């Protein structure tokens, strides 16, 4: 039975990846941070087959211990400070966890794996690295121009992953994933913030939602589709880097309009207030990915459409809010 160690196991992608790998017959171990982390109870209830091991991306010794205990065949580094807005408020923490954390994990793998290192490594890189984009659509060769402490930290993690592959012959892959969402998305991200607000407005629990820049454009896919690409990357004869995206872009405004429409509300502008607090010091205006390399080499293609994604998130949030009322 192959073993996978996942950092960021309690996040959206960690949960989908754990389910996917469990379904493929893996022993799944998740790195869990902090003392009495309340999320470990949720994990035990929702994904009881996941084994948890303590550790932190800010603590090299804990990563070495986690690897020695787990003896993984594959390591998926999904752990990070992943909220761009927060990274502007806590840039040093972001650099330490999202950036240096990758270096620590790779060092730990290098030390524990020894010669002919058998451990395969996946780094969750991000389309935020393209930032002020140099070309459209963005592919694996597009120059990087990050626009936030988060994007800068991800560039460091990406370059470090490539460097460890080239320096030590590690099987290390970097998946450059564009935005990916689901009913499991955290409420701080714009998609879930909107679908949760739509559900509450629909049920009369909330009057309005305050948002920032509605003009930003993103390439939004379904997280459940994207974790399959992570696994495919670690199942190839040779390690490489891949863009994972849908190839379609939509403005935040389009997402908002569609989400309200999915709840049967057409005059969405009545319920949206623009609040300068949600604007960022520097914005990423347009992201749209070219995932043709993943299609030809991994046989990966997104399955869920943008409309299906928005509808499923709204439907799920209405269900959650209804259940709370009972
Ligand atoms: N969060 C948030 N809240 N974003 C808002 C809001 C708001 O109220 N109003 C407008 N936006 C805009 C942001 O300015 C941004 O342009 C866009 O909505 C998307 O914001 P997020 O959902 O927070 O995601 P992100 O694009 O910054 O980052 C996500 O995608 C990256 C991949 O490109 C995160 O998941 C990152 O971790 C990931 O790497």
Notes on the protein architecture:
- With 326 residues, this protein is of the alpha/beta class.
- It has 2 domains: 3-180 and 221-244, NAD(P)-binding Rossmann-like Domain (Rossmann fold, 3-Layer(aba) Sandwich), CATH 3.40.50; 186-218 and 249-287 and 304-325, UDP-galactose 4-epimerase, domain 1 (Alpha-Beta Complex).
- The protein has helices at residues 12-23, 39-46, 60-70, 84-89, 91-113, 149-168, 190-202, 223-233, 252-262, 292-298, 306-325; strands spanning 3-7, 27-32, 51-54, 74-77, 120-126, 171-177, 180-181, 209-211, 217-218, 221-222, 241-244, 250-251, 272-274.
- It has a 7-stranded parallel β-sheet, sandwiched between helices.
- Strand 5, helix 6 and strand 6 form a beta-alpha-beta unit.
- Helix 1 (12-23) crosses helix 8 (223-233), helix 3 crosses helix 5 and helix 5 (91-113) runs parallel beside helix 6 (149-168).
- The longest helix is centred in the first third of the chain and has 23 residues, at 91-113.
- The chain is globular, with a radius of gyration of 20 Å.
- Guanosine-5'-diphosphate-alpha-D-mannose binds next to helix 4 and helix 7.
Integer-rounded radius of gyration: 20 Å
Multimer state: single chain
What's the count of strands? 13
- From the 3D coordinates, which CATH architecture of the largest domain would you assign? 3-Layer(aba) Sandwich
CATH top level of the largest domain is: Alpha Beta
Main beta-sheet strand count, sense and barrel state: 7 strands, parallel
Low-confidence blocks of residues: none
CATH superfamily of the largest domain: NAD(P)-binding Rossmann-like Domain
Question: How much strand?
Answer: 15-25%
If you average the pLDDT, what whole number results? 97
How do the strands line up in the largest sheet? 3-2-1-4-5-6-11
Chemical compounds bound to the protein? guanosine-5'-diphosphate-alpha-D-mannose
CATH third-tier fold name of the largest domain = Rossmann fold
